[in-house]
Amino acid sequence: MSDCDVKEFKLCELLKIYNGTKYDHLNKGDIPLYGSGGLMSHVDEALYSGEAILLPRKGTLSNIMYVNESFWTVDTMYYAVVNDKLADAFYLYSYLSQLDLSNLDSGSTLPSMTKSAYESIVVKLPDLKIQKAVATILFNIRKKLETNNKINQELEAMAKTLYDYWFVQFDFPDQNGKPYKSSGGKMVYNPELKREIPEGWGVARLDQLQIATGKRDANFGTENGKYDFWTTANSPIKADEFSFEGKAILIAGNGNFYVNFTDGKFEAYQRTYVIQSEDEKMLIFMYMACLQSAEKLRKASNGSIIKYITIGDVNNISSPYDHNVVDEFVKIYRPLIDQISKNKKQNQELTQLRDWLLPMLMNGQVKVE
After folding, report:
1. What pLDDT score does 15 carry?
2. Burial group, residue 278, by CB count within 10 angstroms (0-12, 13-18, 19+)
3. What pLDDT does residue 101 have?
4. CA pair distance 164, 196, nearest whole angstrom
5. What local confidence, expressed as pLDDT, does residue 324 receive?
6. For a surface tag, which of 31, 199, 285, 341 has the fewest beta carbons within 10 Å of its beta carbon?
């Protein structure tokens, strides 16, 4: 794509920007409510229905979003309707998401963007036909990422339901195939767990496995590293080196205390707990116990400003345990966690492809016929 193949516009020529507004008069519903931090809730009315680009007004200015549905935006998020005679909305969203807009920030303490700042942005666009072709490629990658995430959410929900049914409600199949507790199975009080568990059961604790913390600080990440670098976020960034290898449970020591499962060579941030074991069945089972304990960890966290959990909090994660029942549970769960891991790996590869491809498509280094 040569310079003569593109036209230069001010953003105000390509779209019209509207203000978000208050929502305290709305009821709960199924229409997404967006702020500059992303999806906030769901309400029962729409501010706009259709294709739009969401542009942050205050807060996280990099969080530009594309929507094609009924939605409401609060006053920290503008919404913009694109002139489809000049620009493809998804292409323009992709273009804007690549820009560094920090120099347009007009806020002193809270990052802020005005309408006029957005409208003054200079945009270079190819022919609309090329825009649509590029947008189709990028949109298909996005849809595949969303599909994999949705599949993983459903698989994880199935596993959590099964764990709850067998190891919290104790209605695992008894010798006759009937739910144990509901069919009158004998329960006894366990002083460690401070609750009744099935007779003959014990307790599995996370400190029976190998627990370490990462050694790297947040600056260790690299843009094009080969190995996953697990910080306190819900997905890894990249690093050029690794210190850990194999299957592992990862628990973020601060932030939202995310719990993840990984398999391969990876690095970890110093506030991330890494749990490994030669007993793969026990590792897979205790991953579910960690997921079950995530909310408890959040409530029990320390710190007045930055919340954190200690190694003692991690060590104390436990679950009722019976060898035979755990074996049966892992037989069912292992294919699910393998599929979840496969989908996560594919999403990482697709994200890397998109991030590599996007600027090349935008500046014409890669042509779309």
Report:
1. 96
2. exposed
3. 80
4. 15
5. 95
6. 199
Tell me, what's the pLDDT at 301? 62
How does the average pLDDT of the chain come out, rounded?
A: 90
Which amino acid is present at 41? S
CA distance 283 to 326: 11
> Tell me: the pLDDT tens digits for 191-236?
999 999 999 999 999 999 999 999 898 788 887 788 999 988 888 8
- Residue 67 φ/ψ region, left for φ over 0, alpha for ψ in the -120 to 50 degree band, beta for the rest: beta
Residue segments in the chain with a per-residue pLDDT below the cut of 70: 1-4, 106-109, 299-306, 364, 366, 368-369
Q: For the chain, how are helix, strand and coil distributed in percent, rounded to 5?
A: 35, 30, 35
- Whether the CB-CB separation of 237 and 292 falls below 8 Å is answered with no
Asked if 79 and 35 touch (Cβ cutoff 8 Å), the reply is no
Q: Which two tokens stand for residue 12?
A: 């105000």
Cα separation, 189 vs 200, in Å, equals: 11
Element (H, E) at 248: strand 244-252
303: left (phi over 0), alpha (psi -120 to 50) or beta: left
**Strand order from edge to edge, sheet including 237-239:** 210-213, 272-276, 244-252, 259-268, 227-230, 237-239
Q: What's the pLDDT score for residue 303?
A: 59
H/E element, 32: strand 28-35
Q: Are 347 and 284 in contact (CB under 8 A)?
A: no
Contact predicate 268/227, CB 8 Å:
no
Structural tokens at position 169: 């409600």
